[in-house]
Amino acid sequence: MRWTDGLLELIDQRRLPHEAVYVSCRDAQQTAVAIRDMVVRGAPAIGCAAAFGVALEAANGGSMEKAYEVLAASRPTAVNLFWALNRMRNAIAAGHRADAEAIAIFEEDIAINRAMGGFGASLIADGASVMTHCNAGALATAGHGTALGVIRSARDAGKSVSVIANETRPYLQGARLTAWEMVRENIPVTLITDNMAGHLMQQGKVDLIVVGADRIAANGDTANKIGTYTLAVLAARHKIPFYVAAPVSTFDLAIPDGTHIPIEQRHADEVTGYGDTRWAPHGVMVSNPAFDVTPADLITALITERGIIRTPDEAQIAQLIGH
Asked: If we measure between CA atoms, which residue out of 123, 119, 135, 46 comes closest to residue 320?
């Protein structure tokens, strides 16, 4: 994303990898539409975009309460969205410039991702094959990435690392976005369909799994892109480390466990076809939850900008977060 002269420009992730074009947002409503329609996605990136949406509305002299309301309604699962809105609300109430606060959130996110990457890189051995799901890279953040940031940091530390990217049905974030980022970074990447993951684990071709997160409950239960829970179960069966990389802003200590995390239900069209192609018959019923919840006992460790929480539980998380 780019912030120039009071204009928010978002790379249209719906059109990657075929073309890199930007969508311009001039107020909170346009920003909310961009978030809802997946122009921008990824929990940290959504939070940054929402902060800039508030700044746009403030610059326009619009209703701040309406701005908060429309942005909060854009996507329900990623807690970073609500964290950013609360931070913007508090900053404006304290008399701070909205654009300065949004820029601070953006710049802090990059620093957080690099710190997280440094911690996570210590978990990756030289020559490791890392499986990831969805896209938790630079596109999903202000820059560098969470799960892919860990991989980038391992590469930058001189380690040889390769990536297995699950395509991530139904929206294909792995096939379209993660693969695109890794190719641009010259990090070896192999694309697979989601239902190949277990086979590759069984064949000994996966050394560890690193994913991002959209919301982490007080006990460590983690919501991430649909299909993540399946990977965690498979990883446990094959004794493969399963790591979640997420900033502190992704933790929601107000909810005790994953059963309280709202799961976004998206449009049936994402399942019955893609683009202009439809492969399912008309009249079929469709379920399209965008996320699932991985229980904490399936997570080997949580990687944050403040350190690593191994075998996460409520006490360790509360101590790290500072509550």
From this structure: 119
